[in-house]
Each structure stands twice: as structure tokens, then as C-alpha cells.
Amino acid sequence: MFKVLMRRPYTQMQQESASSPAQCSAMIRRDFPVAARLSHHRVLSGVPHVLPRLTSASAFGSSTESLVSRFCVEKTDLKDYVLPNASWFPDMLSMYQEFLEKTKADGWLKLPSFKSNRDHIQGLKIPSGFAVSSGTSSDQGDWRIFIRCIQAEGQGYEYVIFFHPTKKKSVCLFQPGPYLEGSPGCAHGGSLAAMMDETFSKTAYLAGEGLFTLSLNVRFKNFIPVGSLAVLNVDVEKIEDQKIYMSCVTWSRDKQTVYAKSSGVFLQLPLEEDSSP
User: Fold this and answer.
1) Is 252 within 8 Å of 49 (Cβ atoms)?
2) pLDDT digits (tens, 9 = 90+) for 70-108
3) Confidence of residue 145 (pLDDT cuts 50, 70, 90)
4) Most Cβ neighbours (<10 Å): which of 44, 132, 169, 190?
5) Catalytic residue among 197, 235, 254, 274
6) Nearest Cα residue to 262 out of 3, 34, 6
7) 18 CB-contact burial (10 Å; exposed 0-12 / middle 13-18 / buried 19+)
8) What whole-number distance in Å separates Cα of residue 110 and Cα of residue 119?
């Protein structure tokens, strides 16, 4: 849900990641070692932080059901941005309806999306070892998650994420608007990378308290036309050594075109209770 480090080995055009598995592993060991073997690390250059140590009694004690229950609040005055609006094209609407039907019998859940991640974790906070100053005096009401920064309907990120708790997988329906254009008529590669990271983020948190992005690798295959539907299929591959490993394939609606493939690794770390008034 919150990002400490994001490797971005991509451009708007197609590009292969240059990092080998060994290099990736070395990076993780250097920057984000497992908590039980670590005393200090840095979140920002020149600012030392102590990574909270986990005990067997506190590490990952929340079940997927309890995480989903807290995340998917049933009654709230907050605006849910994943409800259909007039900018949704037929492909987006029809597939949304298909997955709504699956929520009734097949175990899928539609995840709400509020203006800020702060709204999803009310009563909780980032572990104190990762707390950083925002560097701004902006009013709290102005905080927005990056992919909710464009307020006009249909101009930026139109998306909805469905999550399956048992299968630990997600499907994101993404309709990029004209404000996300890269090459004329096509969505910028960075907009898709951000959408992948967001889907990874929500999946990692609900599947096992994955909190921070350790790495994100993207291989672009084809351009996404602005206004078309891209379907992101995310699977949790494994959870080990306090890390959650995931994969994503982004398809066209008819599955005839692969837009991109990606993998992500998230640090597994529980949030803390927020006792502040």
C-alpha cells in the first residue's frame, strides 16, 4: 500500500529488464533484509530508521478475512471511486457486471477505492521505523493516492479491482483516459506500471500484510489504446522470508493481445495501532 522503493526499468516503449535474478536478490538483501536479521536501514538517503523487529506473537497475526473486513468497510461516508460512471465504455461496464455476478457465488470481492490510502487504514499507521515527515503543510483533506489525482471522470485512471481471498489473486479492470497518453492515442507505459503497482499493492496487503514495494519489473509487449479496456491478472506466487512474490499479465478484453507482463516483490510487515487522538 505504501512505497519505499520502486525500481523502474522501463520507458514508454517496450523494454526488457536488465537485472538478473541474482542482482535482484542482492538488492533485496542489501536494502530490505528480513527484520529478524536487521538492526538499521535507510528509507531516505541520509535518514537512518530502525526496522521494527517482529516476534512470533506479532508477526502477520491478521487473517485474510480480518484484513478484508477492515479494508472493505461496508458503511462509510467516503466516496468509493470504483462505482461505474458515464465515462465507462461498454467493455468496461460489461466485464464489471460479469465480476459483480462472481461476487455473489464464486468468492470474489469488489475492493473499494477511496481518495487516499489513509482512508483504508483508519485506526492503523505505518510502523514507526518507517515514519517519515511529509515535507508539506498541506491540509489533510488534500491527500490523494497517485492514481486518484485526476478528478475528472474518464480523463485519467478508471479502474476497479476484484480480489479472491482463497485463491489469493486479483483482477483489475483498467480504462486509461486521454490525460494518460504517451504516444498519440496510446496510454503511457508509466500509467500501466502505476496500475500494476497499485493492484500488486492491494493484493499483497490482503493476501498477507504486504506493505512496501521492494521491486517492480515490467516487460511491455504492446500499446494500450486510450479508452480501451486492459485486464490485469495478478497472482500471488509465493510468500517466504517476509516477502510476497507476485506476477501479473495484462491482456486485452478478448485475450488476443498481451499488453505487458510484470513481477513484483513486497515486504511483509504489519501495520501498527494508531493511538493518536
Assistant:
1) no
2) 666 665 677 777 889 999 999 999 999 999 999 999 999
3) confident
4) 169
5) 197
6) 6
7) exposed
8) 17
In angstroms, rounded to a whole number, what is the distance separating the alpha carbons of residues 165 and 109? 8
What is the pTM (predicted TM-score) of this model?
Answer: 0.72
Name the CA dihedral angle for 25, 31, 35, 37, rounded to a multiple of 10 degrees.
80
Quote the CA–CA distance of 11 and 24 in Å, as a whole number: 19
With cell 491527500, the residue in question is 143
197 is catalytic: yes
The grid cell for 213 is: 514495494
The predicted structure's pLDDT at residue 157: 95
Q: What DSSP designation does 225 have?
A: B
- In the three-class reduction of DSSP (H, G, I as helix; E, B as strand; rest coil), residue 163 is classed as strand
Cell of 54: 517482529
Instruction: Name the E strands within 11-99.
Output: 41-44, 47-49
Rounded to whole angstroms, what are the CA distances from 9 to 13, 210, 214, 231, 249? 11, 22, 13, 22, 17
Round to whole Å and give the CA distance between 242 and 145: 25
Q: Which of 186, 189, 203 is nearest to 246 (CA)?
A: 203
Asked if 266 and 214 count as a contact pair (C-beta separation under 8 A), the reply is yes
pLDDT of res. 260: 99
